[in-house]
Amino acid sequence: MKKYLYLIALIFPLPCYSQSINTSSQSTGSVVNQAVQVVPSRQFQYQLGANQVCQGATLNISPFLSHTNSFGSPYQPYYSRPIYSTKDIEGAFDADNNPIGDGEPDEPTKIIRTESVRTGMQESNTSLNGGITATFSIPLSFRYQKLCRKGLERQVELYEASLASKRLNYEMSRLATCSKHIRLGNIFVGEMAKICADVKVVSPPNVEHTHAISSDLSVTSDVQK
User: Fold this and answer.
1) Are 116 and 83 a contacting pair, CB within 8 Å?
2) 67: closest CA among 124, 129, 116?
3) What is the pLDDT of residues 140-177, one digit of tens each?
4) Any idea what the Cα angle at residue 161 is, between residues 157 and 162, rounded to 5°?
5) Given Cys at both, which of 129, 130, 156, 181 links 65, Cβ 3.0 to 4.6 Å?
6) Which of 153, 142, 141, 160 is nearest to 48 (CA)?
7) Which of 124, 120, 83, 126 is nearest to 105 (CA)?
8) How far is 48 from 153, CA to CA, in rounded Å?
9) Are 164 and 105 in contact (CB under 8 A)?
10) What is the dihedral of CA 73, 77, 79, 83, to 10 degrees?
């Protein structure tokens, strides 16, 4: 039963009466809040081909310089403060019935002069702030990052092998074409001569070889018979 009473008390709390003392305070001033926002930028991407894209770590360094100039309007460096009369020669009497002061000014609202008081107000306030913000971003999927980099390396190897194969085909085709036309007596003259400048035709092939000659006399005598 008690737990239901506690539940009802939480849902429908009873009013509480107490004595309170209200105090109030007043303060004046000015505060300038300046903030520098760091917006994460896109990470660097390494792309090879149409579908091979890998992201890497990114370090962003952003220097900043801010300038603030404030002023008050109207600008009043001084203000006039009235000086009231403090003369006190009347209002009471002494033992001989002569008028004397009673401790209060005789003419409290009388202004006898004014004086200039400095307000402390500045014509303008200038603030110059500078600094550097830096953010470092790294991808969280290191496993897939390694696989992507490995795939990039393999793709580069395939490109290099394909380039070497095409270079070999080009050189063999150039050799065959140049040697054919050199044999026919057709050669380039001028700027195009450098295409076949390193091709040399050797005919017959410069191959050193020897043949053994048999000196068997029995074979000769058989031929004579």
Assistant:
1) no
2) 129
3) 777 777 888 888 888 889 889 999 999 999 999 999 99
4) 115
5) 130
6) 153
7) 83
8) 10
9) no
10) 170
Per DSSP, 13 falls in state P
- Taking only the tens place, the pLDDT of each residue in 17-76 is 545 555 555 555 556 566 666 666 666 676 766 677 777 777 778 888 888 888 777 888
Model's pTM, two decimal places? 0.39
Which residue do the tokens 């002069």 mark? 113
Beta strand extents in the chain (DSSP E only): 45-48, 52-55, 58-70, 78-84, 91-93, 99-101, 111-118, 125-137
Map tokens 């017959």 to a residue: 204
Kindly report the length of the chain.
225
Most distant CA atoms of the chain, gap in Å: 198
